[in-house]
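Recap from last week: sequence in, structure out.
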Amino acid sequence: MSKIGIIIFARMSSKRFPGKVLKKVVFKKTLLEIIYLRLKKYLNFEIIVSTSRSKRDDKIVKFCERKKIKYFRGGLNNVFDRTINCLKKYKFESFVRINCDRPFVDYIEIKKMIKIFKKNKFHIVSNQLKKGCPKGLACEVASSKIFFNLTYKKLKKNEKEHIFNFFYRNKKNYNIFNLNNKLYNKNYRLNLSIDRLGDLKRVRKIFSKYGNIYVPTKKILTELKNEI
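Predicted structure tokens:
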């Protein structure tokens, strides 16, 4: 069985909401910690926080060390290169990509995606190749080989920062499966991410309503779609 890892991409230099990854969201837990704990509780895979060598991201490293979370540091803007080096260091043959703006990361959806990926020979299993995924729930499972086989020096600037853009733009050359989720489709206009300071209030309200950070995303979409 190929070694699958989960990589959480986090940085302090968000343009719209700097430092959001270490903002306390609810129950004295930061955004990064909530995402990590939701994944760790239900997915039995190695989890790595990928951040940069920027001085500003020293805070993320210190947080990870304090919480005993594994991390990797690389270039700030060339995330593609950082991803390749992270995959090599931890010997991941495939990985799940999670951005650190997603407090309601859907571990049930990820389980389905990993299962599909394992049973088939897809290069990428995605839930955002087509429109229909609410903001904050996008995810990919991908083979490390397609990253290793691509010379990142030939990539455009935005393809180095947004690591799946090249593959989506050249999807005819790759075997990509898009997981269709009917509940996602019904709620695709909802925003479940934290992009701005104002999003914190909404997220805090949802977690407080359920009294824990592990509430299934499906439950939120089913019960609170008119409140989000």
